Amino acid sequence: MIKLTDFSIGYGDRMLIEGVSTSIPASCLTALIGRNGAGKSTLLRAIGGLNPRYNGRIEIDGHDLRTLQPRDMARMWHSDALHIPDGRGVCRNLTVRLWPILCLP
């Protein structure tokens, strides 16, 4: 389970997400929907440990994200979550058919 408590994040003077408390149950397909610039990718990067500049608390399976070492996070995530930024040509030739194959444990 992922739990956010009084979570806030932004860049400079611009707050993208402010004071959010919520949880995402384990084994649950969850969609994050919003307009461009709303903070979707910023939130995912924070949950993935790629953006430590946030206020509040992020817990993953009861562990505070700030206390986890990168190797421990990698073990926890294994194949549970994936974030590939769009529009950067990271997986330019990857077809939709290949995604499930790459995500198998």
Topology:
Elements (H helix, E strand, L loop, with lengths): L1 E10 L2 E11 L15 H8 L7 E6 L2 E2 L5 H8 L21 H5 L2
Antiparallel strand pairs: 1-2, 1-3, 3-4
Global mean pLDDT: 81
- Fraction in helix: 10-25%
Shape: globular
Main sheet makeup: 4 strands, antiparallel
Structural category: alpha+beta
**Could you tell me the radius of gyration in angstroms?**
15 Å
Give, in spatial order, the strands making up the sheet with the most strands. Answer: 2-1-3-4
Annotation field: number of helices: 3
Please give the number of β-strands.
4
**Fraction of residues in β-strands:** 25-35%
Describe the model:
There is one protein chain. This protein has 105 residues and is α+β, with helices and mostly antiparallel strands. It is built from three helices and four strands, in the order E-E-H-E-E-H-H. It has helices at residues 40-47, 70-77, 99-103; strands at 2-11, 14-24, 55-60, 63-64. Strand 3 (55-60) and strand 4 form a beta hairpin. It starts with a strand and ends with a helix.
